[in-house]
Amino acid sequence: MKTMEQVQRLITEKKFEEAAKVLDRAISEYPNDPAGYTNFGNLLIAMGENARAVNFFKKALELDPSYGSAAFGYGNAQFERGRYAEALTQFADAQRAGINDGDLFYMIGRSASELGHAGQALAAFQRSVELNETDTEARFQYALSLARLGDVDAAEKQFLTVIEADAAHADAYYNLGVIAAFRDQITKARRLLHKALELSPNHILAANGLKSLDKQQTDRQN
């Protein structure tokens, strides 16, 4: 098994210490190869050590400023640290270096959304879905962006596509319930919000949504 394939398997299996040992050997044998530093950075992100990860991505980029995977990893580390503007800068560098996949645009969308750049987020999530139609989470974020910008019909279509792919997606049911309530389709809204709570009993937003509907009904009766 190739070294990096082995590392990816170990990270997936959460065998972080073993992965670190493999990467230490790889870096010792090939100190001028940015791949080892990049993968060590990705390992540190998986371990939640995002500040340390930044140093490894910086080293990789010192060795090869056009190494897109390092820029992407750097952006991920900055995103996890809440440094969304810096993350966007790194993602732009990754794109210029030739990375053009759904994961990159998904993270651009997440960063832009955190910064309140609604239009940029929408465009990025749309592109992410175009590149990977099976990415349910990207589609969910795309739907949220559509809803936030007022395109409720398009958002509903995307949320429905999400639950077709993942029937246990409580947040998609919740948002469909919100749309139904917005249209004053109260019975439908209740059904959808109850479904969200059934799938996720601690779904506070769905519980609050049902309480709000109950209050509206009581107010109307009075």
TrEMBL record:
<feature type="repeat" description="TPR">
    <location>
        <begin position="34"/>
        <end position="67"/>
    </location>
</feature>
<dbReference type="InterPro" id="IPR019734">
    <property type="entry name" value="TPR_rpt"/>
</dbReference>
<feature type="repeat" description="TPR">
    <location>
        <begin position="170"/>
        <end position="203"/>
    </location>
</feature>
<protein>
    <submittedName>
        <fullName>Tetratricopeptide repeat protein</fullName>
    </submittedName>
</protein>
<dbReference type="InterPro" id="IPR011990">
    <property type="entry name" value="TPR-like_helical_dom_sf"/>
</dbReference>
<keyword id="KW-0677">Repeat</keyword>
<feature type="repeat" description="TPR">
    <location>
        <begin position="102"/>
        <end position="135"/>
    </location>
</feature>
<dbReference type="Pfam" id="PF13432">
    <property type="entry name" value="TPR_16"/>
</dbReference>
<dbReference type="Pfam" id="PF07719">
    <property type="entry name" value="TPR_2"/>
</dbReference>
<dbReference type="InterPro" id="IPR050498">
    <property type="entry name" value="Ycf3"/>
</dbReference>
<keyword id="KW-0802">TPR repeat</keyword>
<dbReference type="InterPro" id="IPR013105">
    <property type="entry name" value="TPR_2"/>
</dbReference>
